[in-house]
Design a protein that fits this description.
The chain is α/β, with parallel strands linked by helices and 284 residues long. It has eight helices and eleven strands. It is globular and about 50 Å long. 42% of the residues are buried. The chain binds 3-hydroxy-5-(hydroxymethyl)-2-methylisonicotinaldehyde. 3-hydroxy-5-(hydroxymethyl)-2-methylisonicotinaldehyde (PXL) binds next to strand 1 and helix 7.
Length: 284
């Protein structure tokens, strides 16, 4: 019931940052442009995201998660994909885990982006307990998309402040897999003078990587854009590595377009300028 064969349906579970271009406000336009049906579960409403702003408001919607998902279950609403992003600290993560159990079936793809840290630091309000909770959620997922900082923190390790090489990254990803993750796409990999992604495809039991020249522009919400585009391509039938490469290309191009405007637009990517490229051509 309430499933349509002409579209994939994806549930995004993450906050609504009213201003600032991250989480739900980037996932929805991207997934819609790619032709997928979107359903949202807002986990919190913030006046802005927490990067570079002060005095923002936060309304935590943890208590709504169970009743909303029970209504969906009763109504027979199912999902081809559940994609979780930024979650509030504490019991919200285990309630999201319960929601996944309640509304998934064997065909639901779970993608977890444990958005909580970058550049060696937790985002405001997060700590090692939250990293351990996010690790539990990543272990449930078919694909997890931590950045290098999040991968370190989920493993209870220090971020290598003085840099790292490719051998370190491959070993890091294999430690995540040994700890129980399935496919993993590590983002924001910055080594040997290049920038890119390193992935592990659990079906192929193989590591893949994709690097390009470094553009020095740490912009909030870049990981959300990456995972949204990757999810969109997976739902369109692309293999994981192809989906991850296409998402990395899209992010690189969007960072390039945003770069000249960073002083007026420092809070997120100008993804509206490149969104049209994600719309499938006629017949797709
Ligand atoms: O994924 C980035 C993100 C999402 N949501 C909120 C954030 C951030 C990054 O800082 O603050 C509220």
């Amino acid at each position: 019931m309430y499933r349509t064969p002409i579209q994939k349906r994806v549930l995004t579970v993450e906050d609504v940052s009213c201003f600032g271009k991250c989480s739900t406000t980037v996932a929805l336009p991207i997934l819609s442009a790619m032709g997928h049906e979107t359903v949202i579960l807002p986990t919190a409403v913030l006046s802005t995201h927490t990067g570079g702003f002060t005095g923002y408001t936060v309304r935590d919607l943890t208590d709504d998660i169970q009743p909303i998902s029970e209504h969906w279950k009763k109504t027979g609403i199912g999902f081809d994909c559940i994609y979780t992003g930024y979650l509030c600290k504490g019991r919200q993560v285990s309630l999201v885990s319960d929601l996944i159990d309640r509304v998934s079936d064997e065909n639901t793809l779970l993608v977890v982006d444990p958005a909580m840290a970058d550049n060696g630091k937790f985002y405001w309000g997060f700590d090692a307990d939250h990293a351990a909770d996010m690790m539990r959620l990543c272990k449930k997922s078919a694909v997890a998309t931590p950045n290098v900082t999040e991968a370190c923190f989920m493993l209870g390790e220090a971020f290598p402040e003085n840099g790292y090489d490719r051998a370190y990254v491959d070993a890091l990803i294999l430690r995540l897999v040994s700890a129980g993750c399935r496919s993993v796409v590590l983002t924001s990999v910055n080594c040997d003078g290049k920038y890119g992604i390193v992935g592990y495809d659990a079906d192929k039991k193989a590591i893949f990587s994709y690097f390009h020249e470094k553009i020095d522009a740490p912009i909030h919400g870049t990981g959300d854009v990456f995972t949204s585009v990757m999810v969109g391509h997976i739902l369109s039938g692309k293999p994981l590595e192809t989906a991850a490469r296409l998402a990395a290309d899209y992010v690189r191009e969007t960072v390039r377009v945003t770069y000249p405007y960073l002083s007026e637009h420092p809070y997120g990517l100008l993804f509206e300028k490149t969104l049209g490229r994600l719309i499938p051509g006629d017949g797709e």
